[in-house]
Amino acid sequence: MSSDPAIEWSNLVxxxxxxRKCRLHAxxxxxxxxxxxxxxxxxxxGEAPGEKEDEQGRPFVGPAGKLLNKLLESINLNRNEVFIxxxxxxxxxxxxxxxxxxVEACIGYLWRQIKLIKPKIIVALGRHAARTLFHAANLKWxxxxxxxxxxxxxxxxxVKVILIPTYHPAAALYNPRLRKVLESDFRKIGEVLRSELxxxxxRTLLDYLSSSSRKIS
Length: 217
Fold this sequence. Notes:
Elements: H1 5-18, E1 42-46, H2 51-56, H3 63-74, E2 83-86, H4 100-117, E3 121-125, H5 127-136, H6 144-147, E4 152-156, E5 159-166, H7 169-174, H8 177-197, H9 205-216
Parallel strand pairs: 1-2, 1-3, 3-5
Antiparallel strand pairs: 4-5
Helix pairs in contact: 1-4
């Protein structure tokens, strides 16, 4: 495998375009590999492409995508600064939930994306994305109402990331009460991102002695 991220990404996209691993390929117009910088610090993972995404081959370009763009702007992020993808890369018919065997067939592409991009933070948009990532990290998943906005340190294929689940933007379009919840979660996401991007302060001798004393006590 090439060590050049751009070549690795190009090869991965080509595999996704040619993929026939599950039934979803038969009905798709365009697969949706994902998009964003390959050195993105934050990665947003949704469930599956919808109708507009299937038409354009791009993630989150329908109504839910417009809301996601506004949420990103609310924490001073531009869409072209983040990487956006989904658990499965082809649209399930009628926008139904992806089936377990479809997720299983497709999930390897996501793991390779995470390993390639090495984000600091992953935001799981919706319960399907969150549950999949929780199970991969051997964490118990209960519900989005219990887990949204909470910070979890996980490791995926040797990549240590901060996982933050929240509701899928589409859920807020159907249930406007969730809009405030999403906005609150995104404020927390912004705080975590700013903290992760702060340059690390060089440790002084005093810091070393202080940390050593805490270990001893």
